[in-house]
Amino acid sequence: MDDKVKDIDALIDQGLNAEKSELDLREKELEDEDIIQIVASDKVKGVTALFLEFNDIGDEGVKAIAESEHFKFLTAMNLFKNKVTDEGVKIIANSKTFLNISELIMSDNEVGVEGARALAESKILGNLVSLWVGDKVGDEGVALLAESKYLTRLNLLSLYRNNISYDGAVAIANSKNFSKLTELNLNWNYIEGDGVEAMMASDTLKNLTQLTLTYNPIGNRGAVAMANSSNMDNVTLLDLYEVDMGDEGARALAESKHLKNLETLILIHNDINENVEAMFKDSKNLPKLTNVMFRPEKAEL
Questions:
Q1: CB atoms within 10 A of CB 3
Q2: How far is CA 174 from CA 142, 160, 169, 199, 200, in A?
Q3: Per-residue DSSP letters for 217-272?
Q4: Rounded distance, CA 86 to CA 168, Å?
Q5: How many domains does the chain have?
Q6: Along the 301 residues of the chain, how does pLDDT read in single tens digits?
Q7: 93 lies in which domain range?
Q8: How many other C-beta atoms can be found within 10 angstroms of the C-beta atom of residue 187?
Q9: ∠ CA(185), CA(170), CA(258), 5° rounding?
Q10: CATH number of the domain enclosing 217
Q11: Which residue(s) pair with 104 in the sheet?
Q12: Is 18 domain-assigned?
């Protein structure tokens, strides 16, 4: 046990940045028992940012953090790729430890509809500006987040790999909460062209600067919808990696009058011929475009 305690102390010492009040414990093979020991240490008192990506932390570890006075000033917590379930999310949603938290990353866990419900109904998490959650939320969970009375300050929302389809896209489009969103990550879902059309017709998604739709079958229909929407006026980064797009959709993007602020465009693994690719070079409609990628091995422009 003494050796284990020494190991935990060493991990804290290695990961603690006292000047920035950050504790970085990513990729340390941590389990719940380890977290319980870590949160008991006075060394972590006053930490404001906690990085726990790529560990094996579950609900008991989350509970230990949530019940610790040492983390009452926490503003950011990253639990990417751990083992937190809906029960763990409920603990977070109801913990007074997280009154000041503004960034919560929980993608690649085991969070489903009930976890989304807990987030949506949490008064405590009303200060969130950045939320990453997944990966079993689905359309129902997205609707809960979109209709929340409390998640009204979000600037960044990441819902990648959550089995989201048309209904989820419509929920996002119709949400009054999401008017402040500048970054929206919907990678690895099942959104098709009609879902993109709904989002592009949205009255609230007008402040987007980054939109990523990697591995969604949006097709030409979705690309055309983006090209013709004023909701794309402020977008600087658009990621359309392998989205079943062909020449029609790419041509529409190249000729769009709504992508004047676009700087980076990813079109890798789509069926676009060289003549259409050439339209993006020195396009008058895309004056700020400096990086357009058609193939993984190189960037154009």
A1: 7
A2: 11, 19, 9, 8, 11
A3: --HHHHHHHHHT-GGGTT--EEE-TTS---HHHHHHHHT-SS-TT--EEE-TTS--
A4: 19
A5: 1
A6: 344 444 899 999 999 999 999 999 999 999 999 999 999 999 999 999 999 999 999 999 999 999 999 999 999 999 999 999 999 999 999 999 999 999 999 999 999 999 999 999 999 999 999 999 988 999 999 999 999 999 999 999 999 999 999 999 999 999 999 999 999 999 999 999 999 999 999 999 999 999 999 999 999 999 999 999 999 999 999 999 999 999 999 999 999 999 999 999 999 999 999 999 999 998 999 999 999 999 996 544 4
A7: 47-300
A8: 16
A9: 65
A10: 3.80.10.10
A11: 77, 131
A12: no
Q: Examine residue 176 and state whether it is found in any structural domain, yes or no.
A: yes
The answer to the question of residue 31 being in a domain is no
Tell me the β-bridge partners of 106.
133
In a domain, 30, yes or no: no
Residue type, 103: E
